[in-house]
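Exercise 7b. Backbone tokens:
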């Protein structure tokens, strides 16, 4: 059993390659053999393919071979098993490829939304530290050695600049530590604690809601592509959304479906999507193209989530840059005012 897992991009690449080979009429064991022969990296996938090749040549299914390799997510293994049983393996593989590509794209966007402000905070902390440790003490020492008429009120500006820089440094350091702590909690499996805090901010809550809805819609489309019934697909997709608030709404939606409503009608009644998206689902379901509409809706939600993250970064980045510029400007003014006072007294 392997301790390492394929990342989302690796799973997507594997599923897409397998889908194209299966589409070409190549048997599963031959497809895995071709993938193995084309892999020379010696990484996780190549090691997993070696064991999968042996199992499929002995008659095991692709899902069993993937499960034994222990490098694929449980969701992917489950979907491929259902796809094999329903005769829709090719379709499921393509949907899984798109699903994990979208997961990777969204994860990178969210990571960038955190790392860029964190880098800006580190820069601001470095500049403020230099100001406090080198620049202000140097000017203060120079003015202490100067003789002549120097207004005490002008000289006091340096003192106030030091207080302002120290306060800004403490605030920026606390913000940086908060971001680092959040990242550590997220990586250590304590996402719920971070989500509770983020949901207090409207923009962050909107991003989380869109991301959760995207994960649900993408998983639902994959389940339906595998041949699952609508009610079973909805129930199986709920845990994958990653949001307790959305899960409650989805449970209510599932209850409506148990009463005889279709998914599209229940989603429209529960206002799961925006009205225009809800009408798209209704039209798609009535025309027999629900899976195609879900695929399009998943793409729109992915784009919407990415745009929301970009807009948040566009707000945070100028704000942090403004703090840095104002702090530096006030510090420079504070050290120049005593010099101006001294020159006036001389003139």
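Sequence design result:
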């Amino acid at each position: 059993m392997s301790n390492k897992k394929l990342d989302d991009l690796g799973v997507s690449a594997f599923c897409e390659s397998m889908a194209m080979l299966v589409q070409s009429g190549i048997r599963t064991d031959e497809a895995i053999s071709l993938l193995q022969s084309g892999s020379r990296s010696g990484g996780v996938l190549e090691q997993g393919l070696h064991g999968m090749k042996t199992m499929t040549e002995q008659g095991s299914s692709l899902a069993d071979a993937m499960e034994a390799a222990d490098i694929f997510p449980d969701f992917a293994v489950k979907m491929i098993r259902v796809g094999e049983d329903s005769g829709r393996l090719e379709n499921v593989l393509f949907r899984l490829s798109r699903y994990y590509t979208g997961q990777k794209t969204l994860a990178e966007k969210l990571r960038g939304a955190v790392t860029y402000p964190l880098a800006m905070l580190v820069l601001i902390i470095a500049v403020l530290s230099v100001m406090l440790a080198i620049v202000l003490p140097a000017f203060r020492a120079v003015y202490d050695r100067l003789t002549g008429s120097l207004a005490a009120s002008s000289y006091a500006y340096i003192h106030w600049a030091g207080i302002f820089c120290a306060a800004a440094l403490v605030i920026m350091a606390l913000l940086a530590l908060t971001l680092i702590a959040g990242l550590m909690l997220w990586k250590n499996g304590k996402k719920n604690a971070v989500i509770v805090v983020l949901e207090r901010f409207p923009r962050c809550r909107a991003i989380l809601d869109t991301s959760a809805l995207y994960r649900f819609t993408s998983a639902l489309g994959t389940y339906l592509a595998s041949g699952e019934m609508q009610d079973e697909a909805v129930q199986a997709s709920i845990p994958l959304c990653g949001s307790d608030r959305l899960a409650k709404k989805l449970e209510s939606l599932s209850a409506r479906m148990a009463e005889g409503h279709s998914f599209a009608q229940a989603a429209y009644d529960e206002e799961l999507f925006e009205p225009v998206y809800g009408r798209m689902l209704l039209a798609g379901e009535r025309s027999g193209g629900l899976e195609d509409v879900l695929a399009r809706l998943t793409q729109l939600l992915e784009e919407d989530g990415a745009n929301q993250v970009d807009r948040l970064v566009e707000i945070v980045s100028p704000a942090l840059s403004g703090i840095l510029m104002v702090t530096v400007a006030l510090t420079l003014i504070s050290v120049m005012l005593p010099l101006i006072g001294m020159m006036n007294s001389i003139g």
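Instructor comment: The first helix runs from residue 8 to 23. DSSP finds 14 helices and no strands in the chain.
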